[in-house]
Amino acid sequence: MGTLTGKVALVTGASRGVGRGIAQGLGEAGAVVYVTGRTTEEGHAAVTLPGTIHQTAEEVSQLGGVGIAVRCDHTRDEEVERLFQRIAAEQGRLDILVNNVWGGYEFFNDGTEFWTEKGFWTAPLSRWDKSFQAGVRAHYVAAVMAAPMMIAQGSGLIVNVSFFAAQRDDRGVIYGVAKAADDRMAACMAHELREHQVAVVSLYPGLVRTEGVLKAADFFDLSNSESPQFIGRAVAALATDAHIMAKSGQILVAAAVAQEYGFSDVDGKQPRPLSVAEI
Hints:
Helices cover 40% and strands 13% of the residues. With 279 residues, the chain is an alpha/beta fold.
């Protein structure tokens, strides 16, 4: 992989999980990484899982990048606007936006159990609102604010972290529809931004060893799993590809990206790309 030294990235929802790993992967490549989330103190998160934006930012710096933690509730447009104003004032550019923040996971019963509802008609309506407001809409708003900077500099990469559920009928109506919306958003944005040399892709992780997954490890077969940082390495590889515009608008699988660009996971393993049927 190439280097991202001198490049500026924003990873939303990076207190823990995939977002934390993406920030780490970008830091490993030398980027300045703005890390957003709502958790600033350990033990004060919406879920009973470890991690804060400050811890993630420190890890980015330890790995060779520059981590900058900014508390931001991505359901509040005024906070998002201040975030982008700060990036513009401090850096004068934004090269990579990773739309990772998501809502609705609070219903995983402290991360140890799956949702128990049988049928979308039994799920709380608030889950739809959270998945779209703190997920799909949050991704759209961040892209709206990132696009002018990227257009002005004539380059940029926007990554929507999505998932195979977008292409499955049996992964829940809310989750499936929300992730499908993320995929279509990326494709439509790619069409409009192509003339400005700004690429937009959807990226599918596999089974990632997040804090929540590890807490519920008895439910999973982790033999072909991925570290969160592996997803960050995939984003870094895409961001250093001089021909990234050829992939703009596409749905990419992180493990397939690793095979194409020739990098492995932090443990040296090469996770096998999963298919839609396997998830």
